[in-house]
């Protein structure tokens, strides 16, 4: 038998089970190696078409079509997206803060003053003056700033400095740092203005620092003058107020109050101190029911509840806070429901409120006041005290009084410099007034002063652009037709400048837009009377307290101030307030 016949005979013989499995395992390789156009690889011999081929098909199906897996459930998709969004927001926030810090530390070079331009003198570094400087284009003027303090103070957080919740330098911004960020250089003199001569257009200033040089008094000429010196504390002629009270307007006042609080505590804890003297020393009296007085009373109560009671428990039950207000209620600029909420919160905090009560006399240990009862009768009350804080009333500064005497139109003004709708001092030329020293028909608040400063910045920028275009038009008109061949070109330039002049919008008179009022009332609660569209929204409680904090953080002048204030809040929350006496 030939070899081909033997091969055919071997294929015809049935194979064993092992041989069948071996052949079935080899078949899928045929399918893999076959052409894509081939549907199935057919065996060359008819003897494989029986049960062996069915086994081949079963083996291929098992390998080529595995059982479908159930779809995976997507859990916590919202949390994952929230995490990604928070992560990206944190990166963006850090980048923004870093860019702001870099800009503060690396300001651009400034241009030198142009002697041909007008000299603008600004008195003061308060809310009105700094708001003006922030938006003023200093390239249009030779700007000079004069103030006895070389920093801007964020006054809404000043009550928090009295108890150590916030350190005083966290709410101070050096004025030279502010001026360094302007395009054109601005000169600053740390001095106090003693008089203003509107006829000669000069301001007389003197050096009031502890270190004196050869020159301590001089004059500064001006073309335009902005008076923003603010106001001083009013005592209403009550004897003993200035000698025995602590005011709350400047950083020095807050530091003085902080030292006095700790003096009262340590003196009350002195060995063998009498109970009557302990009661007097631990009684803190606040005169003035406005936002400043209310916030200070709330901060003081928090200080004793959260810190003093833990560290000086033997005298903590003697502590008392009394708030005296001459009007029928506290926070008179707020809505009635917020006033009632504040009074009820103070009652829970055991802060005594005496409304319709007028102080008549102050000694080194007592406050004598007259209260009006509901039936109209008068009652004299004597309050022993360890600390007296006077947080009410504004008085005109001497430099403003001197200027009012020099202007005949100001003879009937009593509360400050009367101004018109453009904040120009009545009866004077080239003199403007902003802030507490100006009488514009609005309450003397930081919000009003800030808007007045912004208004003057728009006005002065507009005036500079208008004057520059008018000078160019007058110069071109003067050279028109003097030389042959330039008439058409000069006419086109004049038309272009006139077109630019028409596009400059006239600044409308100043109008104050009230954005709302905020006040902290202690126990991590606050009240807010916020303007919303055509009405007001009144809110109070813990969430309003968070809004109060976020609003003040956004209002801080610089990134540096914001970071420092947040750090102080966290520090006082984690470690408590510092009780050391400076």
From TrEMBL:
Residues 119-453 form the FAD/NAD(P)-binding domain. It is an enzyme of class 1 (oxidoreductase). Signal peptide: none annotated. The keyword Transit peptide applies. InterPro entries: FAD/NAD-bd_sf, FAD/NAD-binding_dom, NDH-2, NDH2-like_C. Residues 514-578 form the External alternative NADH-ubiquinone oxidoreductase-like C-terminal domain. The keyword Transport does not apply. It catalyses: a ubiquinone + NADH + H(+) = a ubiquinol + NAD(+); a quinone + NADH + H(+) = a quinol + NAD(+). Keywords: FAD, Flavoprotein, Membrane, NAD, Oxidoreductase, Transit peptide, Transmembrane, Transmembrane helix. This is NADH:ubiquinone reductase (non-electrogenic).
């Amino acid at each position: 038998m030939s070899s081909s016949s033997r091969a055919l005979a071997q294929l015809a013989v049935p194979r064993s089970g092992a041989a069948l499995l071996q052949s079935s395992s080899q078949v899928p390789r045929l399918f893999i190696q076959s052409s894509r156009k081939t549907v199935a690889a057919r065996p060359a011999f008819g003897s494989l078409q029986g049960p062996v081929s069915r086994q081949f098909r079963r083996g291929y199906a098992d390998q080529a079509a595995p059982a479908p897996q159930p779809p995976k459930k997507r859990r916590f998709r919202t949390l994952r997206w929230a995490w990604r969004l928070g992560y990206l927001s944190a990166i963006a926030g850090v980048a923004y803060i870093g860019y702001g810090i870099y800009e503060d530390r690396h300001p651009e070079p400034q241009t030198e003053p142009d002697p041909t331009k007008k000299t603008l003198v600004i008195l003061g570094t308060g809310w009105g003056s700094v708001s003006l400087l922030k938006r003023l284009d200093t390239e249009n003027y030779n700007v000079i700033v004069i103030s006895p303090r070389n920093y801007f103070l964020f006054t809404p957080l000043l009550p928090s400095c009295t108890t150590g919740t916030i350190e005083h330098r966290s709410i101070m911004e050096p004025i030279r740092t502010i001026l360094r960020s302007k395009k054109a250089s601005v000169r600053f003199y740390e001095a106090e203005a003693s008089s203003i001569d509107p006829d000669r257009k000069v301001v007389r200033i003197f050096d009031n620092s502890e270190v004196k040089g050869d020159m301590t008094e001089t004059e500064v000429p001006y073309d335009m003058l902005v008076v923003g010196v603010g106001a001083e504390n009013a005592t209403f002629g009550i004897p003993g107020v200035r000698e025995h009270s602590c005011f709350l307007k400047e950083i020095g006042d807050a530091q003085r109050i902080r030292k006095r609080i700790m003096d009262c505590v340590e003196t009350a804890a002195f060995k063998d101190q009498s109970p009557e003297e302990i009661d007097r020393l631990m009684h803190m009296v606040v005169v003035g029911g406005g936002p400043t007085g209310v916030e200070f009373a709330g901060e003081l109560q928090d200080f004793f509840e959260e810190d003093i009671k833990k560290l000086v428990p033997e005298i903590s039950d003697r502590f008392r806070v009394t708030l005296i207000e001459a009007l029928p209620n506290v926070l008179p600029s707020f809505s009635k429901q917020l006033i009632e909420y504040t009074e009820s919160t103070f009652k829970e905090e055991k802060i005594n409120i005496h409304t319709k009560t007028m102080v008549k006399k102050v000694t080194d240990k007592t406050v004598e006041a007259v209260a009006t009862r509901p039936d109209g009768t008068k009652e004299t009350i004597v309050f022993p005290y360890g600390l007296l804080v006077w947080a009410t009333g504004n008085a005109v500064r001497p430099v403003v009084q001197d200027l009012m005497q020099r202007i005949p139109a100001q003879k009937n003004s009593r509360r400050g410099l009367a101004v018109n709708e453009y904040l120009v001092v009545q009866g004077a030329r080239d003199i403007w007034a902003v802030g507490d020293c100006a009488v514009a028909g609005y309450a003397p608040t930081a919000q009003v002063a800030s808007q007045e400063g912004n208004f003057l910045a728009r006005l002065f920028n507009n005036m500079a652009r208008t004057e520059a275009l008018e000078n160019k038009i007058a110069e071109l008109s003067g050279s028109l037709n003097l030389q042959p061949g330039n008439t058409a070109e000069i006419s086109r330039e004049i038309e272009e400048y006139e077109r630019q002049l028409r596009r400059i919008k006239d600044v409308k008179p100043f109008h104050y837009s009230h954005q709302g009022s905020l006040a902290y009332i202690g126990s991590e609660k606050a009240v807010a009377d916020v303007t919303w569209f055509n009405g007001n929204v009144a809110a109070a409680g813990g969430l309003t307290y968070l809004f109060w904090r976020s609003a003040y953080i956004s209002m801080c002048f610089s990134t540096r101030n914001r970071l420092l204030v947040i750090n102080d809040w966290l520090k006082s929350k984690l470690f408590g307030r510092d009780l050391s006496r400076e």
